[in-house]
Amino acid sequence: MLVFEDLRRTYGETVALADLGGSVADGEIVAILGPSGCGKTTLLRILAGLEEPDAGRVLSDGVDLAGVPPDRRGFGLMFQDHLLFPHRTVGENVAFGLRMAGMPIDERRSRVADVMDVVGLAGMDDRSIATLSGGEQQRVALARALAPRPRLLMLDEPLGSLDRSLRERLVTELREILKELGIAAIYVTHDQDEACTIADSVVVMRAGRVEQQGTPPSVWHRPANAFVARFLGWADVADGIGIRPGGVRLDPDGDVHGIVHRIGFRGDHFVVGVTTVDGRALTTSVADTPPESGERVRLTVDADAVVQLSESEEF
């Protein structure tokens, strides 16, 4: 449904996109994942028509979109700063794009009612934006983006301003909504948990290039290189080897000996860093009482959790 080929964009000496290519199928949700400055937002802005590439092209159903303005591409946009109109009601905010497009009022009201029901805001048409919680305001922004029935929805860090528990709930609901409506989406984020929860396919970017693309399980279980593994949160990555989180455990009969050098609390578990007798740093977790700093311990490393990685530069 959407194809981009050899996209290149530079800002002075900085290369934001380096001959990037990819595609999105009908109904597919693609998450673009990577650290700040890797080119995620630049890619989204070019696909949406908000910026022009220095080279390359974007095609929708085989049609080159060069010169086609954002409002003629049929794509919906949703950003972290949702930019709702505070002087308008919820219903007026949702209907804004439909009214600007000249949709008759009866059809407009029907469309607004339908989409507000989908996002869980039924009956809130007359509410003031100021009376809504952060999560409700994000739902209004989503409803506004969905109201024109776009074939593709582009979301740039849409939940970044919300607390983690709310983000976790909304990202799951967002996937359900997109799948129910059959809308393809590109979801830009630096949060690997969000990307893996919402996406059919995850694209990991660095410095304007794609490091790896695949299903969330395939990327998580088999990172292409050390950069991807570290970005996904693998703590034990060194000398071309990575150990999947959960693959190291304290074991009184374990064959790896070491000394505890770090203990951190993570809410429902402790993270324990161990320096082995041969100088390696390994990480494990403990649900309740952790060993003490400086204590000698033994570990077992699950063979299935050890993955060979290609080397990559630090980020």
Protein architecture, described:
This protein has 315 residues and is an alpha+beta fold. The protein is built from 8 helices and 18 strands. It has 2 domains: 220 residues, P-loop containing nucleotide triphosphate hydrolases (Rossmann fold, 3-Layer(aba) Sandwich); 72 residues, OB fold (Dihydrolipoamide Acetyltransferase, E2P), CATH 2.40.50. α2 packs across α3 and α5 packs parallel to α6. Helix content is 27%, strand content 33%. It has a 6-stranded mixed sheet, with helices on both faces. A 5-stranded antiparallel sheet has the order 13-17-14-15-16, with no helix packed on it. The longest helix is centred in the middle third of the chain and has 18 residues. The protein starts with a strand and ends in a 7-residue tail after the last strand.
User: What name does the CATH topology of the largest domain carry?
Assistant: Rossmann fold
Contiguous low-pLDDT stretches (5 residues minimum) are: none
Number of helices: 8
Order of helices and strands: EEEHEEEHHHEHEHEEHHEEEEEEEE
Strand content: 25-35%
Could you say which overall geometry the principal axes of the C-alpha atoms support? Answer: globular
Which key features would you list for this structure?
Rossmann fold, OB fold (Dihydrolipoamide Acetyltransferase, E2P), 2 domains, 6-stranded mixed beta sheet, 315 residues, alpha+beta
Task: Please render the helix and strand layout as text.
Layout: E1 2-11, E2 14-24, E3 29-33, H1 40-48, E4 55-60, E5 63-64, E6 75-79, H2 90-100, H3 105-118, H4 134-146, E7 152-156, H5 164-181, E8 184-189, H6 192-198, E9 201-206, E10 209-214, H7 216-221, H8 226-231, E11 236-238, E12 241-243, E13 248-250, E14 256-265, E15 270-276, E16 281-286, E17 296-301, E18 306-308
Parallel strand pairs: 3-8, 3-9, 6-7, 7-8
Antiparallel strand pairs: 1-2, 1-4, 4-5, 9-10, 11-12, 12-18, 13-17, 14-15, 14-17, 15-16
